[in-house]
Each structure stands twice: as structure tokens, then as C-alpha cells.
């Protein structure tokens, strides 16, 4: 029997989505352990340091019964400070003690960055892993970066003729130099959605209806990013579809998130009492098919690899579908939409994770050999 594949799970991270990542990572750790992989959990602190979770702590967290709310069920960043270095065999990395590279704690064949938001989902970690020449799960640098930045993402979607909502984007200095913020959003109908360009989990987003304070919403978005996007709101339903694959990706069943109060805010995403997800969404067949087709086109538009969840706004009155965004590392807890819509399509959580690991290796094997990092 060949030795089990050794997978390093990266989780936590400096973004505001730290806790969500810790919860997603526990789901992935459970699936990998159940699938016969050897797993090593590497927590990323809020300042970007790496910590190796001791095996016993990982085993304890992994084996405890699931809690009711996904967000309470999570790994924690704990353990000695470590760094990743190229391993002796090309395509592997070593987890070694900081300042004592001889002290190797573990060796990895594949890295699974279960990180959401800036740093982990925007190409930064992907760049590190590329430079270490190790296979890793999910999108590469470019697709991650484009997927994280809502302005770049909408440009990529528009260039490929994918329907998106009317919007404007501006930088902090433009806003500060403008007397009346209304001038920046001319032509957009309320309600507006004001968003930091690079964030997730609805953090920093405000819905601005008639009579609401636009300037306050922009200030809030600016706390998270210097680049702000303002979109015209769509009143209707929110649909989500998962994409999985490499050269010939596939689209899952379609799910719906039932949202209260006009939009899906952070509180509802992670602390809501009722499960807001309806899987599969109840839709005419042709709408389901169009969502699936647009999901694959959106994935191709950003150059995706491995996985992404594509989120839609479905206008109640006009029947128009808009791609709202792609998430290149979507929530991955057992209660998350990504695994749920795959389960509805007959692909279980463990199979999804298996395929992602395989896709990481395919991508690594097919990329042109440049710097291997092996002489570091
Ligand atoms: N143009 C829009 N029309 C209606 N609702 C929107 C619009 N943009 C965002 N929303 C609401 O805000 C939520 C979060 O926005 P989204 O762009 O998905 O950011 P995030 O990356 O933080 O998830 C959406 O799930 C939806 O409820
Ligand atoms: Mg979203």
C-alpha cells in the first residue's frame, strides 16, 4: 500500500473572516481524515504567522461531535511557530520550526488553503505556494486575485458578456475630493449596495435605501478597503451554484438563500437561527439551467481552477439573472452551501474534497516548470 497523501490545511488568517475559515477548516479536516489522508493543520495568526496545531489537538477537535451552529464548530490557531520551506523532493514542502530549519515537524504533498478573504483567497497565499512549488487546492494567483476584487471581477464578467448589475467604483481620494457623494452614484437607483472592493462575508457592506446616509455607508466600506464599489440593488431572490473541476469543470445543483431584511448580512450568514438555505432551489427548469451555464461561464471568465461558488441575484419583476460574485474559496463547513449543492447533485462532501486534492495535483503537473524553489 502506498503511503497516504500528506495534506496541509491552512486556516485562520488575518482577514475579518478568520473565524469562518476556522470553521470551514474543521469540516475539511474531518473529510480528509475520513478519506484516509494524513492531515496537518497549520493555523495562520491574525498577523500572518504560521502555527502548527499539535496532532493531539487536531484529533480532539476533529473527533468531537458537531455543534448546532457551524461557526461554533471550528479549529483554533495554536501551537509552535513554523514556516513552510521547499522539501527535499520537488513538489513537497516541509513544515519546520521558525529559526531552526533543521527541526522538521512534517512534510506535505498538497496544501489546502481553507482561507477566506484577503491574504488567503486573493492570490497572496497562492503566490507563496507557487514559489514553494507545491500543489495546492483551488484557483491560482490570477483567478484568486480577480475573484477577490469585486471591481476586477465585474470587469472580467462584463468582458465575457455575463450579466452584472449597474455599478460604479471609486477610490478613497476621489470620495474625499467630492463635495456631494451623490454625484459619485449618479444614474444608480436605490436601494444601493455599498461594498469594500476586497472583502467577504458581507463585512463592510451597507444597503442604502431612500433617505439612508450614503456617506456613512461609504465611510464604513473605506474602513476595509481604499476601493469602494456601489451597486444598484436587485430586489428578488439569491441563488448560488457550485463549480468543481479543471479543464472541464462541472456545475452543481442550484441553491437559494432565503434572506430577511432585504439582504444577507454577516449576522444572518453565521448567527441566524433558521437555516436560510433551500437546496435545490425551486425554479423553472430553464432558470436552473441558465444559472448552471452562467456559473461555468463566470468560472471561465476569471480563469478558475478547482472550485468556486457563483452567486446570483434573480430579479423578481423582470426575471433577469445577474451574477453577483464568485467566491474562489467558499464557506466549507458541513452546513455551507458549496457542499450542500454538490450533495444535491449526488457528490458527497468527501468526494468533493477528494476531487479537489486530485485537481491540485493535475494543475501542478501540467504547469510549465519555472522556478522550482528546490535550491533554496
Ligand atoms: N446589487 C445587489 N442587489 C441586491 N442585494 C445585494 C446586491 N449586492 C449585494 N447584495 C446583498 O449583500 C450580500 C453580500 O454582498 P456580496 O456582494 O455577495 O458580498 P460578500 O463578498 O461580502 O458576500 C449579498 O448576499 C446580498 O444579500
Ligand atoms: Mg456574497
From TrEMBL:
Annotated residues that bind Mg(2+) 2 are located at 325, 327
The residue ranges of the ATP-grasp domain are 154-358
Xref: PROSITE patterns: ATP_GRASP (PS50975), DALA_DALA_LIGASE_1 (PS00843), DALA_DALA_LIGASE_2 (PS00844)
**Principal location class:** cytoplasm
Q: Which protein are we looking at? A: D-alanine--D-alanine ligase
Q: Does the keyword Plastid apply?
A: no
Q: What NCBIfam families has UniProt attached to this entry?
A: D_ala_D_alaTIGR, PRK01372.1, PRK01966.1-4
Extract one GO cellular component term from the record. Answer: cytosol
**Needs which cofactor?**
Mn(2+); Mg(2+)
The EC number on file is: 6.3.2.4
- Compartment(s) where it occurs, according to its Swiss-Prot or TrEMBL record: Cytoplasm
UniProt cofactor note: Binds 2 magnesium or manganese ions per subunit.
